[in-house]
C-alpha cells in the first residue's frame, strides 16, 4: 500500500557486482601483501648476511690480533704466510672462551668451482666465508709498508728511511694480514693488525741461555 515501508532485496546483478568488487579488492590486497612479504624477506636476508659478514670479519681480526711467535724449538708452529692462507700461534683462538695459546690456520679451500675461507685449529673447522665465483688471496704487511704475498719474505723489509735492513732480522710475523676477495659483485677486503708485541714471554730456560 502507498505510505507503507517496503523492503527490497538485492538483485542477482547487484550481488554479482558486489562479489566482483570484493574479489578485485582481495586480489589487490593479496598481491600487495605478497610483495611486502618478499621485500621483507629480502631485507631480512640482506641484514642477516651483513651481520654474518661483520661477525666473520671480527673473528678474522681476533685471530690475527693474537698472533705470537713460536718458541725456537717449535719450528712446525712458527708463523707461515702464503697467498692461499696462513698458520701460526694465536692467543685468541675462535673456539676458546678465555684467551689461550693455540695453533690455528686460515686458508682458502677449493673443491671444483666452489671455494671458502676456512678456519682450523685442532679438530675445529669453521667456514668464515664462502666464495661464489670469486678469487681470493692473502697478503702480509712489512715494516716498510709493502704488502707481500708470502711471509717470511725472501728479503728483510727495511724498518725505516735508512738503509739499515742489514742490522735487523726479518720479524717472525708481519704487521698486518689482508684478505682480498674479487667477485662478480665487486671487491671485498679484510685487514687486521697483529696487536702489540708478537713475542712470546721469556721463559726461565731462555734467561739461562742468554746468561751462558
Let me know the largest β-sheet.
Answer: 6 strands, antiparallel
The oligomeric status of these chains comes to single chain
Distance between the termini: 130 Å
Number of strands: 10
Into which percentage range does the β-strand content fall?
Answer: 25-35%
Structural class: alpha+beta
- Which whole number gives the mean pLDDT? 77
Helix fraction, binned, reads 25-40%
Q: What general form does the structure show?
A: elongated
Please explain how this structure is put together:
It is a single chain. With 212 residues, the chain is an alpha+beta fold. The chain has one domain. Helix content is 29%, strand content 29%. A hairpin with a 2-residue loop joins strand 2 and strand 3. The longest helix is centred in the first third of the chain and has 54 residues, at 12-65. Residues 43-51 have low confidence and may be disordered.
Topology:
Blueprint: H1 12-65, E1 67-68, E2 80-82, E3 85-90, E4 102-111, E5 114-121, E6 124-131, E7 135-141, E8 147-148, E9 176-183, E10 186-193, H2 204-211
Keywords:
four-stranded antiparallel beta sheet; alpha+beta; about 210 residues; six-stranded antiparallel beta sheet
Quick take:
The chain has 212 residues and is of the alpha+beta class. The protein has 2 helices and 10 strands, in the order αββββββββββα. Helix content is 29%, strand content 29%.
Amino acid at each position: 500500500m502507498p505510505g507503507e515501508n517496503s523492503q527490497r532485496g538485492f538483485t542477482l546483478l547487484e550481488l554479482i557486482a558486489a562479489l566482483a568488487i570484493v574479489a578485485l579488492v582481495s586480489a589487490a590486497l593479496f598481491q600487495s601483501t605478497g610483495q611486502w612479504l618478499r621485500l621483507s624477506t629480502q631485507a631480512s636476508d640482506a641484514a642477516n648476511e651483513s651481520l654474518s659478514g661483520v661477525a666473520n670479519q671480527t673473528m678474522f681480526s681476533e685471530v690475527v690480533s693474537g698472533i705470537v711467535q713460536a718458541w725456537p724449538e717449535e719450528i712446525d708452529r712458527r708463523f707461515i704466510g702464503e697467498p692461499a692462507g696462513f698458520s701460526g700461534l694465536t692467543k685468541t683462538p675462535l673456539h676458546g672462551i678465555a684467551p689461550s695459546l693455540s695453533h690455528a690456520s686460515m686458508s682458502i679451500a677449493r673443491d671444483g668451482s666452489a671455494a671458502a675461507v676456512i678456519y682450523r685449529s685442532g679438530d675445529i673447522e669453521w667456514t668464515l666465508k664462502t666464495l661464489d665465483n670469486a678469487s681470493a688471496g692473502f697478503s702480509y704487511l712489512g715494516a716498510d709498508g709493502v704488502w707481500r704475498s708470502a711471509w717470511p719474505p725472501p728479503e728483510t723489509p727495511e724498518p725505516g728511511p735508512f738503509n739499515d735492513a742489514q742490522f735487523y732480522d726479518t720479524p717472525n710475523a708481519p704487521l698486518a694480514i689482508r684478505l682480498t676477495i674479487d667477485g662478480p659483485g665487486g671487491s671485498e677486503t679484510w685487514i687486521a693488525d697483529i696487536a702489540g708485541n708478537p713475542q712470546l714471554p721469556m721463559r726461565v730456560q731462555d734467561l739461562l741461555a742468554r746468561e751462558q
